[in-house]
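Q: Predict the assembly, please.
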Amino acid sequence: MYGQLIVEGLSIGACYAVFGIAVVIIYKTSEVINFAQGEMAMISTFVAYHILNVYGWPFWYAFIGALFFAVLLGVFIEVCFLRPAKDPTVLGLIVITLGAEMLLMGLASWKWGAEQKDFALPFSFHKTHELFKGVVINDWSIAVFVMAAVLMIFLYIFFRYTKLGVAMRATQQNEHAARIMGIKVERVFSFAWGFSSLIGALAGMFFAARSTLDPAYMMEPFLRAFAAAVLGGLMSIPGVVIGGGILGILENFVGFHWPAWKPIVAFLVIVAVLCIRPSGLFARHYEKKV
Amino acid sequence: MLKVNNIETWYDLIRALHGISFEVKEGTIVALLGSNGAGKTTTLKTIMRLLYDLREEQPEKGTIEFMGVRIDRKDTEEIVRMGISYVPEGREVFPELTVAENILMGAYTRKDRKGVKEDMERLMARFPILAERRNQEAGYLSGGEQQMLAIARALMSRPKLLMLDEPSLGLSPLLTKQIFDIIKELNEKDGVTILLVEQNVNMALKYAHFAYLMENGRIVRADRPEVLREDEDVKEFYLGIATEQSVKGFKRYRRKVRFR
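A: Predicted assembly structure:
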């Protein structure tokens, strides 16, 4: 039984982790926590839904279309909402993302309505494979694991070996010096937002397949993913993946033994981490102003 | 090579540079000297156009020409590409990037991968300490090593003009001398023109070919170092050689300066 709980926990944890990575990428480049992350993913998923059900195109078209839309949306929000801020403080920018969140949620309710909809991925929950004796894994989980693994490897290579990836890290560490090197800092920020929005949309579609699709469905996954990111230190991508795994398993165990307490696990984790080790489990960076 | 003509820079309502002009001739080391708040760093930042955030039109007045082209309205990126590199005050290396990554960031504006690799190996050979610490994070280097890293990083864009902002800041006299020797070597061997900002007037006058003295956002003296060394005011206020011991002398702490 516990084996099954762990497998389930890890799979939902991997999904939190992927979404947490989206949060971490923006935090890494600009120290802004993007509260609109969930709603950006929600709108992108709605776009996929729209392409599927209104235009009736095949799933993969909708999938690619939604990811493309997500990138544009991320860049749009950075350019139109965050960049015009005059003398921005980090707190001010965070409040702007909160505003963007409400705006997007209203927009989705207006366009697609607030009722719950079905959104299915080609990876079903019912097709299961037996891993060990008594432990099964379904297609959805396998897809999540594969996605998380591919993403991790890709990001590792990107941040370590590509010029743009290193420039993103450089910008986060010292924006002034990055400017002196001739790095176009604004462009780096736009890129980070587009990229993070894309990853968020990926995770968003998986969450939608797991629950239902409505304008508020990303609220909870966002909080969970945020908890995973805080647990991992908000700065490191391996950290958020491990944080996601721990949170997923923890949640599943609590849900199994005391079902009523399951929803608050994420909050307890955030509070506990902030009390005991505010920099997270894997933080290893230089203390900056803040 | 670099011609600064009567530029004015404002920080909100405060005028930091009151119309300064100077020239850097190709192949020379030019020093910009002065005490705190004289406007030396502001001058360099204005040239690099890093004050763009404050107001669109920086510098407010005047022109900056580099190799005959006006650069006072160009983007920093373009200025770097044209061949000006800036080593900022206090090093400002990227603390969590490795030494090698830091150096590569200096070549951000360059497209030729092979040339970048060659240049990097050349620099590593020139700064053996950096080669030794190649894969270490730059934040763990000592001050002198960080200064060398900052210079190496700035050289990666193959600059024609290298601007150094207080390379001696926080370094021991021995290390300062070492850094200055590197600067001299760069100038003589590689033919890089150098614009040097310093508070350490004594040291800078030893190495520079020409020097400008700044005070309160104006240039008050411009001459060859040999001449400046003999200047009464410079001797007394910058080199710390007291000439007059009389009571009258103490009272004359403010002397008339001719602004140019």
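The two ends of chain B are 21 Å apart (CA to CA). The CA atoms of residues 212 and 234 of chain B lie 11 Å apart.
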